[in-house]
Amino acid sequence: MNDRDPTQTMSFSGDAKQAVQYRFLAVAGLLGSMHGCHEDSLTVHAAVEGVLEDVTVYRMARAVSHAFGGGVEHAMDAMSELLANADDDFAKAVLGLALLIADHPDGRFTVENVLATSLDQRARSFARTTLERLPAIEKRAKAKSARASLRPA
Length: 153
Prior knowledge:
Blueprint: H1 16-34, H2 38-51, H3 56-68, H4 72-83, H5 89-101, H6 107-117, H7 121-132, H8 134-150
Helix pairs in contact: 1-2, 1-3, 3-4, 3-5, 4-5, 5-6, 5-7, 6-7
């Protein structure tokens, strides 16, 4: 089990003025990912992660924002380093949420697996909440798919 708090805020190295600038940059990168500008946002993400003391929280936010923007492969890539630690059940639950948002078939299994096997109470709580909100998440994903199919090629 991992003892770090996945709900912590982002902490930047450098002075306060730089921290504020990097927070704005982080927001721009996350919004770019949500709006489907995945390749452009990768440059921003790299810059932000370069000055973060711990990239964990940002990587999780990045994965979810990529999922909202339809970039499931970018979401999985953002989480790959965190998932290398087999004990990080909270990261697995966040990946499951990202997969559900992106309407990926492995999303539900990933979240249910965390709920069934994890000893980390924060991860289990997150997974339980995700499953409780699953109907709304699935409805949103289906509506997004319908809108995408209406767009001209």
